[in-house]
Amino acid sequence: MKIKNQALRLYIKATSWFLAVFTSIAFVFAPILPAALGLWGIDSFFGMDMTYFTGTKEQSYLNILLMGLDKDETRSDVMMVAQLNMINNSVNILQIPRDTYIQTKRYDKKINSAYGAGGPESSIDAIESIVDLDIDKYAIVTTSGFRDVIDVVGGVYYDVPQDMNYDDDYQDLHIHLKKGYQLLDGDKAEQYVRCRNIYPSGDLGRIEAQSGFIKAAMEQIIERFTNESDVDIEKLLTALGDMVDTNFTLGEMLKYAPYILSINMDNVNIMMLDGEAQYRGNASYFIADKEGAKRQIQEYFTPDISEADLSEVQARDNALGKNREEYLTSDAPEFDTPNSDVTVYIMDYSGTDGEALELVKQKLIEEGYKISASITANTIISDETYCISKTDSLFSAKVARSLGIDKYYINHDYSHKADVIIILGKEE
To answer: Counting C-beta atoms within 10 Å of the first and last residue's C-beta, which end of the chain has fewer, N or C?
Structure first.
């Protein structure tokens, strides 16, 4: 039992980190979930009662500082703030250039020096002095851990835009890459993401290169696990566990893992802090545009509400299913089944204080459907209305047609007693 518990801890740590730390490659861990759990004979994960860990109400978003350290582990070569939004299952990532200027009494006024001066807490203070965000947690990746993870997953194919040749004996950094599409192992991937001297814009060019590599890595690793490629999951979990230092607790990992795993790649946004490169004295700095940064935070990082009942989020996500399929109602066949034989469960996520719920109830009853039950969400609002049923039933199409809804959905994991679930959105 001890081995199984250790494995579970390692899995949970890896899950959270593969999101937060690995600069958003985190999401690629989702496809290996069934294999990882099966490896240790764990039959259920999403079946856990998450309210045991979360309580009734929780902050609806989480701000995480992600840092990649240099070889000496005294400076943060990579700095990002990732916000996990549990209302709309999205992640926004703000890249902070390592040369960003900060007000400090230290001689070195670049933000990447804050870590060496006082660890992650000092880095958090430095970032919070630039952007209006409260950092909740931090996660730190070493360069050796980065290399190990890339090697375990079999490398990443990437189109290197130009020949790269650079040597820095002080940092033991030796970059020698040829231009062209190729498989980058851990060592070559590290060379690519750490290279900055070949770009006219220096660190800004490196940040753009890192974004491109991250996206390519996510897509390829997801595809490999989807196609059940031969990847040693135990080695991957070990590499992920060894590469990260963090202040997340085990309970917090358990709390957020399901939301991390439910994120769609289309809901991952990566952007760079607004600003420009300038010389101050004899040093080159990145000067943050405070007004521009404020607009970025307001648009992408400030949620509409600060608290959410996470049980409402979970209920919505369970009803929709992770692998739901969308169809046009107009393409669905006609049904011989009487409306009176179809039961409907209504989840009101419209934010209309029950007004939309009553209108839909009345319409369905007039059409002859049976309403099995209904609930009203108090803190979550859905952007659209969903009509959902199980794989071997098209009753969602029948109900959608009765309500004049353009689309219906099939949830392959549908297990509700009612034939159809309706999630009312704000447009109703």
So the answer is: N
